Amino acid sequence: WMAPGRNSVMLGMGDGSVQYIAIDDKGEQGRPIILKALTGSASASFSKGTLDCGQFVYAMLPGGSIVSAAVSGITAGDINRDGLLDIRSAIGVSAGCNHGVALLADGTVWQLGFAIKENGIKAPTAPTQVSDVRNAVAVAAGRDFDAAVMADGSVRFWSPPLVARQVPGVANVKKVVAGIGHTIVVNADGTIAEIAIDASGVQRAIPIPGIEGAVDCVVAGKSLLVLTADGTVQQVMFNPKEYTVQKMDKLSSVTALSSGGSYALALLDNGTVAHIAIDESGAHLTDAKIDLQNVASVSGGPDTFLAVTVDGKGWGGSVKGRAVTTIPPTSIIAAREAGSGLATGRRQHAALMGDGSVRIVDINEKGEASARVWGDPQVDQKDGFAAVSLGTTQMALLKGDGTVWICPIAISEAGVHIADTATLLAGVRLAVAVTVGDAYAYALTADGTVWFWAAQ
What is the pLDDT averaged over residues 60-86? Predict the structure, then answer.
């Protein structure tokens, strides 16, 4: 048998031995490596690897067990048997972009995943059975979906799991904020750092000097607004070679910040909301009057914002340049149910309710609001949801049990629609916060580490 990879090939020989051959950019092959641990294997499959998720291989051993290994580990020598998965009686295996599927002799199909640790090593996660797929005779794993041929000749499709990777060199984080073009972590000691991404998708943290006592921050345009423990706001400009820090005058007693991308909102300790305009020169406090009192939380989106007052009423608003219009209170959030968790997108917003449910709020161009309760019958909601974050193409939901679920957002001529389906994010456990940016999304776990995955 033969299993081709991106820059390599694996060969199952007639005598039962298995050879691995690397191929360089000029098309020249390297010296064959004999993989003794795979002797007698029935087949193997290389991932449809990208620079972000790396390339790896699944091999089916004698007896139907399966081993996984990163290609970088193969070039250094034999495959490490630590990658042996808890699978028995397999008769087929296929690798996708960042996962795989295995077909067992009884016709069931199992999803194979892994978590990427801080040192870059892929640690296999426990295989999970694909529900409602039985009597399969062949499987194939892709990037956006997997498929199985059934005994009756029909074909079943399903979405593969999302897998998160740990950001190296980041620990003791108390908050992570993903914005357009920039992602910031607030450390437990009050310092902040920017997560930089190189061309191969590797992420690292770069400290931002001149900030102390940080408790929160938002990315707005080319500016970073940092809320410090004394209620003041520091502005950090993202210059090509350095960060410049400047205190925002005439802005104090701030308890929370929210970014709409081209503007920001500051919630003050007296329950009012201030508008901050963003332009090429930075952030500027305006005299725009936002007719709201006793505000408990506020969330800004690209065109509109959402606010909840202490009596539980939901308020909407639109922002065009320095003009802010407040929509009268609506029934989108019931008084006794309202929580403080808000996530604002482009005309679609998500409100985390007091009972742990999530409500999707639509505000059209006329300022008219409507709402619906989000729900996927496949997701057990008995623990409720603890946090929600909206991006351009996905919504991230944090359940009370620390798991993270991802919902796709469809954009078409008819508008923007948040789907009532969710996929479990693999590789992350005991999450305490989530945030979705333009290219990547992030989860903060209870141990202070940060994990990321593609947001597109």
Answer: 71
Distance of CA 445 to the CA centre of its chain: 13
> What is the spatial distance between Cα 260 and Cα 201, in angstroms, rounded to a whole number?
26
Q: Give percent of the chain above pLDDT 90.
A: 23
Q: Is 155 buried (19+), middle (13-18) or exposed (0-12) by CB count in 10 A?
A: exposed
Rounded distance between C-alpha atoms, residue 67 and residue 87, angstroms: 9
Written as one string, the DSSP assignment of 181-210 is S-EEEEETTS-EEEEEE-TTS-EEEEEETT
Dump the DSSP string for 106-133.
TS-EEEE-EEE-TTS-EEEPPPEE-TT-
Return the CA Rg of the chain.
Answer: 25
Integer Cα distance of 444 and 174 in angstroms: 8
The pair of three-digit structure tokens given for residue 231, joined into one six-digit string: 């209620």
Which residues are within 8 A (CB) of 200 and not within 5 positions of it... i.e. 6 or more apart? 51, 52
In 3D, which of 1, 6, 2, 45 has the Cα closest to residue 146? 45
The H-assigned helical ranges of 39-131 are 71-75
Tell me the pTM.
Answer: 0.65
Q: Which tens digit of pLDDT belongs to each residue from 418-435?
A: 888 888 888 788 999 999
pLDDT tens-place string over residues 351-390: 887 777 888 877 666 666 677 888 887 787 777 888 898 8
CB within 8 Å of 17: residues ≥ 6 apart: 34, 39
Task: Give the C-alpha separation, 220 to 102, whole Å.
Answer: 45
